[in-house]
Each structure stands twice: as structure tokens, then as C-alpha cells.
Automatic annotation (TrEMBL):
The chain crosses the membrane at residues 6-24, 74-94, 115-135, 163-186, 198-219, 225-243, 250-272, 307-330. Its main location: membrane. This is Cytochrome bd-I ubiquinol oxidase subunit 2 apoprotein. It comes from Agrococcus jenensis. It is found in: Cell membrane. GO terms for biological process: aerobic electron transport chain. Keywords: Cell membrane, Electron transport, Heme, Iron, Membrane, Metal-binding, Transmembrane, Transmembrane helix, Transport. Belongs to the cytochrome ubiquinol oxidase subunit 2 family.
Length: 343
């Protein structure tokens, strides 16, 4: 049994779950100034994700912890090389979390507007930087061997290359679309109608960016798996737009979720099928035989991975079951009447 490869796939699954679930949280936050025409609207928008946003971030914690334990060299190289970008990303997540808790603590329009701005910034910045980071990981970054591992030799500006920036913009657009469709599923009345219109425009923009980004990814690595995943991502994005147009909210949300799954899987598939791999972090400028970090040379010992496997078999089903139960409990639409009663 190839445990390093299995754990690469497990960590990929965890990141996919994170982007699907926190992705619509980001999109809802981005839509706040566009759809929130009144304080009641803004409360409804925030309350749509209020019971689940922190639960969705569980997948980021689990993925980060698993990455640290299963692939310590990958963890060390990525977090040191991308330190500034990940620090800004973390500050954005903190600002968003604090804003959800503080905006209702004072009855002041100026106070709430300030925290609403933090929610928007804390949604756009992490989505952008996650897209930049994963696009660079898939493309490869300049690195050199260092103390048995690797050291990224570039800077933040190195990460802000055309492909990385396109990945970031695509992630922002995809999250906005995913969040707008979620709001059309979770609200009613005029707010629901405006969410539909926003999703319609956002999905068209997303489709354009995604096609260019995925085509660029395929050109870099035209492996059959990458081609199939990229094509399916484009198809599900188009399906989401068509389903949103006919107001099939549940199916439209399932389609945007599938688009996120397939787009992120395309990047992981590119790492998996890249020549000389499978990689966890390839070098963009391989020199002296050093091609980067592979699944084999970046993983922990077989015993560590075996212990982790038994723990995952017990814990992952519990996380999935609890999350499914939470979504079932809070499945109803957030109406204006319900918000006014609560506040």
C-alpha cells in the first residue's frame, strides 16, 4: 500500500472540502455591499452563513494539521516560502471572524459599516491569496535543496506572476458565484431575486476566467486526467449558469460546488501526473537533478502515516456526520421576518 500517495489524495480531499464550504462563505461576504441594501438585508446575508462559517473552517485546520504530520517537508517549504502571503491571508480570516462577532455589539451604523468592510476584505483577500498560492504550487516555484528538504528562493513578487494572479482572480470569481447561488438558495423575496441576478453575472465572468486559467493549466501539463477534470469544471460552471437562469437553486448550488471540486482537483491532478512526480511542490527551475518535492521524498515515515490512517478512519466520518447534521438543522431559508424577530 502506497501510504504517501494515499495521504496526498486525502489532503487533496480535505482542501477540496475546505474550498467548497468556505468558498461560499467567502462569496457571501463579498456580496454584502452589493446585495445588502438595508440593515435587514445585511443581517439576512450574514445569518445565512452564521451557523456554519466557523464549522466550514474545520477543514482548513484538519488539512493543515495533516499536511504538517504527513508531509513535513512540504509544510515547511510552503509555509516558509509563502510566509508573507499566508500571513496576510491569516489576518484576513481573523478580521472576518472578529467582524461576525463584533458588528452587532453596538447600535451604530458607522460601527456596523466598519465591520462590514472587514467582512468584505476578509473574504476577498483570502480567496485571492489561496488561488495565487495553489496556482503557484501547481505551476512550480523557484527552489533549491536545503538541509534534506527544499528552500523557496523567490519572494512575494515571484508568486504574483501572470498564472498565479489569474488563479487568484479565478478563485475570487468562483467564490462570488458560489456565494451568490447559496444566497439565492437560502433567502426569499427581493433579496433572493437580486442574488439570482448577481449569480447570473458572476457565473459568466467566472466561466471566462476559468476557461483561460484551466486551458493554461492543461497547456502546462496535458495529461489525460488534467484535461478531463478541466473540461468537466468548465461544463459544470456552464450548467450552474443555466440552472440559475431557470431558478433551480439546489441544482445550481450543486453545480457551483462541483465546479470548485473539479477546478481544485485539476491543480492536484496536475501535481499527480507531472513528469517526474507525483509532486507535492515542483521546482520551476530544476537544477543539478533537484526537481522539487515529490510525494516520496517529502513524506513522513511509514509508521507515522499508518498511525494517521487509523486516526483518520475514526475521525473523518465523525466530522462529516456532524457537519451533515448541522446543515440539516439549519437548512431553512433566512427570511426578513425571522431576522426582525431575532433582533
Amino acid at each position: 500500500m502506497d501510504l504517501p500517495l494515499i495521504w496526498f489524495l486525502v489532503i487533496g480531499f480535505m482542501f477540496v472540502m475546505y474550498f467548497v464550504l468556505d468558498g461560499f462563505d467567502f462569496g457571501v461576504g463579498m456580496s454584502l455591499p452589493i446585495l445588502g441594501r438595508s440593515e435587514t438585508d445585511r443581517r439576512r446575508i450574514i445569518n445565512a452563513i452564521g451557523p456554519v462559517w466557523d464549522l466550514n473552517e474545520t477543514w482548513l485546520i484538519v488539512a493543515g494539521a495533516s499536511l504538517f504530520a504527513a508531509f513535513p517537508e512540504w509544510y515547511a517549504t510552503m509555509f516558509s516560502g509563502f510566509f508573507l502571503a499566508l500571513l496576510v491571508l491569516l489576518l484576513g480570516l481573523i478580521a472576518r471572524a472578529v467582524s461576525f462577532e463584533f458588528r452587532h455589539q453596538r447600535d451604530s451604523a458607522r460601527w456596523r459599516a466598519g465591520w462590514d468592510a472587514c467582512i468584505v476584505a476578509g473574504s476577498v483577500i483570502p480567496a485571492l491569496l489561496w488561488g495565487v498560492a495553489f496556482a503557484n504550487v501547481a505551476q512550480g516555484v523557484p527552489m533549491e535543496p536545503h538541509q534534506g528538504g527544499a528552500l523557496v528562493t523567490g519572494s512575494l513578487l515571484t508568486l504574483l506572476n501572470p498564472y498565479g494572479l489569474l488563479g487568484g482572480l479565478t478563485m475570487v470569481a468562483l467564490c462570488l458565484s458560489h456565494g451568490a447561488v447559496f444566497l439565492s438558495l437560502k433567502t426569499d423575496g427581493d433579496l433572493k431575486a437580486r442574488a439570482h441576478r448577481l449569480a447570473d453575472r458572476a457565473l459568466l465572468s467566472t466561466a471566462g476566467l476559468a476557461v483561460v486559467f484551466l486551458l493554461w493549466t492543461v497547456i502546462q501539463n496535458p495529461a489525460p486526467l488534467v484535461v478531463v477534470l478541466a473540461a468537466l469544471a468548465a461544463i459544470t460552471c456552464l450548467a450552474a449558469w443555466m440552472l440559475n437562469r431557470v431558478e433551480r437553486d439546489g441544482w445550481a448550488f450543486a453545480s457551483t460546488a462541483a465546479t470548485v471540486v473539479l477546478a481544485v482537483s485539476t491543480l492536484f491532478g496536475s501535481l499527480l501526473t507531472r513528469a517526474g512526480g507525483p509532486f507535492v511542490m515542483p521546482a520551476s527551475d530544476p537544477e543539478g537533478g533537484f526537481v522539487g518535492l515529490t510525494v516520496a521524498n517529502a513524506s513522513s515515515s511509514a509508521y507515522t502515516l499508518e498511525v494517521m490512517s487509523w486516526a483518520a478512519l475514526v475521525c473523518l466520518p465523525l466530522v462529516l456526520a456532524y457537519q451533515a447534521w448541522t446543515y440539516w438543522v439549519f437548512r431553512r431559508r433566512v427570511t426578513a421576518a425571522a431576522v426582525e424577530v431575532l433582533h
